Amino acid sequence: MTQQTERAGLRIAPELVRFIEADALPDSGLEAERFWQGLADIYGRFAPENERLLARRDELQQRIDQWHGEAEHEAPFGPDYHAFLKDIGYLVEEPAPFTIAPTHVDAEIAELAGPQLVVPVLNARFLLNAANARWGSLYDALYGTDALGDLPAGADYDPQRGARVISWAKQFLDNAVPLKSGSWTDFAGGTPELADPTQLVGRRDGNWLLRHHGLHIEVVIDDTHPIGRNDPAHIADIELEAALSTIVDLEDSVAAVDGADKQASYANWLGLMKGDLEAVFDKGGRTITRRLEADRIYNTPDGGTLTLHGRSLLLVRNVGHLMRTPAITMPDGQHGFEGILDAVVTSLIASHDLKHEGAIHNSRTGSIYIVKPKMHGPEEAAFTNRLFDAVEDLLDLPRHTIKVGVMDEERRTSANLAACIAEVKDRIFFINTGFLDRTGDEIHTSMQAGPMVPKGEMKNTPWIKAYEDRNVQIGLACGFRGKAQIGKGMWAAPDRMADMLEQKSGHPMSGANTAWVPSPTAAVLHATHYHQINVSERQEERAHEAIASLEDLLTVPLATGRNFAPDDITRELDNNAQGILGYVVRWVDQGIGCSKVPDINDIGLMEDRATLRISAQSLGNWLLHGICTEADVDAALLRMAAKVDAQNANDPSYRPMAEAPQDSLAFQAARALVMEAAEQPNGYTEPLLHRFRAEVKARRQQPA
């Protein structure tokens, strides 16, 4: 084990100490001694409470397990179940009506509606791609994907396909920014006369800047471009304002298990906040250096200038309350809670954005945006609020500079959502549903109640519709319109853009003013939905709805009275086992926390720990209730290990599992996630993943 460095009674990974003292603290206005003492004081104050909150989770789970196990309760569980949940404090009283009151919130959060990216913090190239995805080419997004229903046939430009792209894009312009007469298809150049002249808001290098639903469209004019020279108006491209915001993720999409991993994470976040992050890589035999894009400056019709953000507004997702990190050791010898470390260090780093005077800025209003995942109920939200108070005091920041995004992805949070929001009402900037994590917690909370429906049927159960509706309805009732984001989850299939174009319009139609997409290209295509749908109007319409039933939300998705056919059981086992192994093998062996993983049908899906949680809990539940046996699970894991090996055959760094599963730590981790599913805290996968990944790293550091 690496010798740790002592600071203010804490023992800290030396690489983290060096980073904070040499990189993060300079120009922050905070001296090292005060920082370390402040960190120690925050740990001394908040670590015991953090521990009590986790104990409370365990206590509630034990009480619920006991309730399901002690007596015969007929599903769907009725008033006695709800009374029991209130009696143990799982359900709390609804707060009196209130309105959230965050201040200094950037327009990307408070006023605009558009796509949101989530990107792993450990990959600098991906980070820069995501940050620069504020703008993207509609022509490229349509041409290079299956958005039109098929893929390009070869490497050379196909004029017929190009014509289809241009036709689609100009029809989009006709709908979003119609001309006073005629179609954009026939537009022959000059100043476009729009049906609504106020939509023409600027010019840049001969290009036209248009605005619709608050979002910008830049029509690129270039008579020397291969496309532009053949266009009647010399339109070479149509660029859309796309990813308005991006979550820089330290949580579910990264594999960070020690001090070195944390230091690398924080270093990339610092590069973004200082504006100097670079990624150098080889592409087609050329060395490419990628940096953050500059702002865009336009001349306005009245003779002034208009400056638009060239980058996504960057938010940072900290880890939740559960995990401890070996990057920091407390005076009592225990590892420090990772979420506390993240709160202090990511805020310290983001404070550089508030202080520096360079050309690259993130927040224009002086706010720091932290997404806080996996909180359970209002008492944990209140804890986060007090923790952020303490961090602001340490960093000499005005109260509520640090904003919080509440991930509505745990059952106790969704059942008490208004009460959770009330605890952070002066700093909240977003709520967001997460189907996969929420389903994993749904299964684990009611693990003892009986076998659950198969994973693929979960979206057809009553609690899901109530969950998605309540997220919007409660957010609107608490005053989110014009002040904060209501978000929806990820489109997981980055290669299926035609399906996304057809289906993901449902998110803005729901009244959500943001939704997650898996790539910059997907952000461009999803942006078209926010031109089709006026989210502000949809929110006004939905604000008059009654809030969906709590009883529906608490309906446990049991497969009551159902006899599964052997083939159906095998199919479900294989599907879940393949998904678990395909993700875990990269996490444990290669430290890849998020990537496009082929599913059992070889369709690439963007996977992170949320996918793993639902799959492991699904199999663990069936195993517990005798739908399958341990031998059935082992057989499925072995079958699917061979399939996953074949899917990764072209990866030179891949370590096969099937031939010697007993020697593969990745295979053993996948098996443990299923066999020990019922015992994992709230069904989380982090404890086991971290343990096996740390063992892989330790083995590689041992002398040969």
UniProtKB/TrEMBL annotation:
Active site, renumbered: R317 (proton acceptor), D608 (proton donor)
Location (main, coarse): cytoplasm
UniProt function note: Involved in the glycolate utilization. Catalyzes the condensation and subsequent hydrolysis of acetyl-coenzyme A (acetyl-CoA) and glyoxylate to form malate and CoA.
UniProt-listed HAMAP family: Malate_synth_G
Gene Ontology BP annotations: glyoxylate catabolic process; glyoxylate cycle; tricarboxylic acid cycle
Protein name stated in the entry: Malate synthase G
GO molecular function per UniProt: magnesium ion binding; malate synthase activity
Entry keyword Magnesium: yes
Localization per record: Cytoplasm
Enzyme class: transferase
UniProt record similarity statement: Belongs to the malate synthase family. GlcB subfamily.
